[in-house]
Each structure stands twice: as structure tokens, then as C-alpha cells.
Amino acid sequence: MTYFFETYGCQMNIAESAAAEQKFLARGWTRAEDAQVADLAVINTCSVRATAENRIFGRLGWYAGLKALRAGSPDAKSKSLETAAAYVRDGAKPLKVAVMGCMAERLLKSLKRDYPVVDYVIGTYAKQHLDELIDDIENERGLTHAAPRVNRRDGIITEDPVYSFSPVSAEEGAFSTFVPIMNGCNNFCTYCIVPYLRGREVSRPVDEILRELDELHKRGVREIMLLGQNVNSYRGHLHVVAQTGAAGADSAHGADSAQNAESAASATGAHSAAPTVNTADGVQSATVAVSADGSAAGADSTQGAAPAANAADGADSRIITFPELLQIIADHLRETHSSIEWVRFDSSHPKDLSDELIDVIARNDCLCKGIHLAVQHGSDRILKAMNRHYTRADYYALADKIRARLPNAALTTDIMLGFPGETDEDVEATLELMRRVRFQSAFMYYFNPREGTPAASMAEQVPLEEKKRRLQRVIDLQLEITQQEMAKHVGNTEKVLVERESRDDPSEVLAKTDRDERVAFKGAKELIGTFVTVRLDALNGNTFKGVRQQEN
Hints:
This protein is α/β, with parallel strands linked by helices. The protein folds into 4 domains: 2-140, 3-Layer(aba) Sandwich (Rossmann fold), CATH 3.40.50; 176-327, no CATH class; 376-392 and 400-481, Transcription Regulator spoIIAA (2-Layer Sandwich), CATH 3.30.750.200; 493-548, CATH 2.40.50.140. The protein is 33% helix and 22% strand. The strands form 6 sheets. The chain has a 5-stranded parallel sheet with strand order 2-1-3-4-5, with helices on both faces. It has a 5-stranded mixed sheet with strand order 11-12-10-14-13. Strands 19-20-21-23-22 form a 5-stranded mixed barrel. The longest helix has 24 residues, at 464-487.
């Protein structure tokens, strides 16, 4: 049996597709090189903008034609489907189509009705039940499984009431990968549909994250990106038990659990005796032991972690903040001599980025110095209408702190133009902010109304052509700033991670710095997935031209 994934949208979707793929591989399925010859095509979708959904609707039309051809329909057209036509030359070979992701969640009840090409609809809270989809397909092919929980009328895989994180979200053979640490968002920016589709914030327990890092180390991964809709609001569980209760900890939990708990203890100030894993509350969490009198009861209060009431098993449950989590991870990677040398994170909300987080990044070399901090706009009036919870002055202060503490950091951002009620004065305020902060790069786009969000029905909608005109002004300015900021690094010698061969010159490879800048230099493809030192000699567009340096 074969599968094919087609993924759209954010980095979280990429991670979730990789995690879902593990389910198929574990069941003996193999990846098809082309959807035209797969037994199952899975489309992981995005709803953040209407254009993203329109693209998916177009793809479903394409899949309808492919499905008809694969089924042997006499009216099926084979133009542009030559691979599938050759595949079914000796007889029909049915294709199943599944849709997952935010668009699947938004159109959960209507997608299959409106697009009969879809066989399965997998919402945000059903991804952990992909085994039931696999059972359903294998049952049709003659294998016998228990009846899966699939609604035959609308194709919906039964959902759970809570979000579940996958143990590993890495693609096979990847040296750089995503590690989800949160899901959902509580911010409700007035233009954003994410909170309605992914739900409220859920933080992954510390121990689960460290277990995944240990697995990635075994696979030789060199770089990770911690993912969440707003990682700065991470609040994950860490359990601390008294020594008397931990002395008899079951060794079956293994060395990995012990190491994870030790790392968590050192980062939060707890003194560990016999680390265990507490599952009494239904959540696997890092557990560290402290003295019975509570004199070393877990996280230092200056770190911002507050103890909760004792759990039923005597554990003191503590909430770990994002700066604490980063320190735990940095300590863990160092203590375990992990293959992972670089840690990135995304996305960050300005209202939640703390002084403590800046300090943690400054004191740990493994934490990359490229910080993406979405400002969205430069007008206080528009920021308030967006429900962003900060002012331009707040953002200036935050950028100044980052520059002072991390002088070599690259600050990148998102900027939206054409929000309802936006005036030329608001656009000028945004341009002024860009000149003041000097982002190294930016993702720039115009407001795209999403049904169900407050901004979609606001008065004074900006005409499309005016949105485009304003956006072009922002793009033109940012291109100038990007060139000027990147030129400052010419002549520097940098550690880089080699990613792939150059498409323009087969004798070159492409790499990136810890600020996430691209570098091209002469090198063999065997360097891919390794760290080397490169001198940045020139700037060609937005890519440095470099020369590899002798390693010390």
C-alpha cells in the first residue's frame, strides 16, 4: 500500500504531515513518488487566507479527474495524467483522498458533501486516529480489522476532545526538523482564524519534548525549530516529587527519563534524587525529586514558575515558562552530547517576549540569534483594531532590548497592509517603524478577510488595488533595508549549516547562518547536513557568497 502527502501552509502543517507519515510507515506502507500512482493521497490544508483555500479547491478538482481515471471511468480524461493512465492500463486501481489540517476543521461537516472526491476528513483533533483510516482502506482491500470509527456519510474520522502531540515529527533522514511544543492560540487577533480552528493553547509536557530530542539525536539531527502558534506563552508541566516518594522509582522508566528529569532539575533549580515519570494526571511529564521538607522544591521563584497544588500521587506540579524550557533544552543537549547544535523557535508574539527570554538566548550558544517577531503594523490605531495588545512604543522598547543584549541578532517580522480603516497616515507610521527597527527581512502581505473573524465584517474595507499599492511601498522599502543590513555582515566568518546543493552552480552548496541567512560557497554535496566555517565575502541579492575556512 502506498501514500502521498501534499502539504500547504505553515511550519506546523509540515511537522504534522511528517508525524502522520510515521503512522503509515509503521503499518508497512510506502511513500509514492507521485499522487497519480498512490493508493491514498492526503492533502494537509491551510485556512489562514482565502487564497490558500481556493488553491485547495482547485486541487480537489484535479483529484476528481485523477480519481475518475484511476477508477476506470470511460469519460475520464488522461491529459496531464499520463502517469496514472499508464498505471491503470491493465485495470482500474482505486484512489482514496483524505483532507486534513485547518481547512478540514473549518469545513468539517460540509467538505465531503460539497466535494464528493473526498473520502476522509481529518480535523484538528483526529490526527491521532489515522490508524482507523488505514484500517478502513485495508479492510476494503481484503485485510480484516475491527470496524474503524469513520462516519460513512461525511467521511469524518472521530475526534477526541483534546489535542494530542505526536512523539516524533521528523521526516525520515532529515537533519533539520520541527518539534511542536504548543498548539492553539488564545490571542484572538481580529483578522486571524487560527484560534477558531486550532482551539485554545495547549502546551506539551517537558518530558515529551526531551524524549523527542533524544530520538532526534539518535537519528543524527543537527538543528530543530520549536513550534507553536505563540511559543512565548508556553506553560508546560514539570512534576517534582519528594525524595521519600521517589526513592523507589521504577527503573523501568529508563535512562532517558532519568536524564530528562536531571536536565529539568538543573534548569529550574531543583535538586534531583531519583527521577521518575508521573502519569497519574494522564499527562506524561518530567519529574524531579526534592527534599521532603520542600527546601529545594523545584523551580526558583525568580524564574516565574509557580507551584500548583499537590497531585494525587504526592507530586508538586509546576508550570515551566518558555525561557525556562529553552534553558532546560540547552542544558539537556549539552549534558547528553546531542547531535543537535542549533535550536530555533517560531512564532513569537511581541506582548509575551520577556527579558528572561532574551537573557536565555544571550547565554546559550545553541539558541540561534535569528528572532522572528511579527509586528503586523506600525500604527497604534490599527494595532488596537487588530487586538495585538501592544503599541509601537512597546515594540520599539522590545527591539532596543534585543539589539542591546544580542547585538549580532537578526530581527525579522510580518507586516500586513490594507487592514479595514487603514489610512495613508497609518501606512506612513508603518514605514517609519520599519526605518526605525530595520528588520533584516519581512513577510509582507495585504489583509485577506477570513469568514468568521471580526475584521471580515469591519467597516471601511480597503479596495484591493489600494491594498496592493500600499503593500508595494512596504516591499520596496524592505528590500532596501534588507540589502543594507545584510551588507553589514560581509567580511564576517560564520558557522553555517549546509542544506543542499546549489541549483545555479553544481560546484556550490547552500548553507545558512544561525541568523537564518543564506550562504553559497564552493563545496561537495557530502557536506550537506554538517556544520562548517565560512567567510562571507560578498552579497548577491539576498544570498552571501562565501569561502570555506579551515576548521580549528
